Fold:
Amino acid sequence: MNSSERRTIDELVSRYMLEPSLRDIYVEGDFDQDIAERCIRDIGQKDRIVYHIDTVDVPRGLLEAEGLTSGNKQRLIVLAKMLAKIQPGASLKCLVDRDLDHWFGDLDTCPYLSWTRHCSLELYFFSEKILREILIDTAKAHIENFDLFINSIIEFLRSLYIMRLADKELSWKMSWLNLDKHLSQVNSAIVFEKTEYISHLLQKNNRARFGTTFDSTLRKWDQCVTGDHRCFIRGHDFIETLSWTISSLHGVKEIASCKAIERILVLYSTQVPDLVELFA
Structure:
């Protein structure tokens, strides 16, 4: 969608001032939009409409004034702040993922800005029941000890998340490696060749000479990151790990893609009470 087809922020502010009963929701991406639409349809809220942030023209100047980049999440945050001009009490919602932000201090707050409870919407689906049904019942992946498997992917995804936290703190903005060559499976557990991965990661990003700095930053975050695992796993890493699991553990290859897994999760949306509550 080009900028001429998008609604301006001023148009939206006027729209909601003139029609305060509107209960629109704005989200970051297609996956988020599909989940939101399924949830609100299931609970019968036909008056709510879900919009992708791409339908809104957010000028670069507004982003720069808030010290933000031009990503979808940043544009949503700016939109929420601009909508704050409207009299409080409207039922608007601009929903953004926490990602890494909650580990770096307080989250931005304003009347129409909502943050996911977990790192992203994908993590609302991280439950033993849902993963067992997708990976074993549906995808037929060969996992004999499911408890061991779950614990191993939490440990792996936490390690990867800590690397992302260290990268953010150091402001390196590294390009990440494909995981396939650094993962294996032993007795139902996923094994992550972390040392090798870090070495190749630093080399790829011309940071090998800063290995000691990266290692000390990792150790610091390793001490800090505790609690609910859904608050220290990146959504896309979670989906990619499920895809790798199906492919590597002899599951049904036709549903091993990240896109196929996302479509399955959309079907589960109304079975996750926290998700339904989020959009209700």
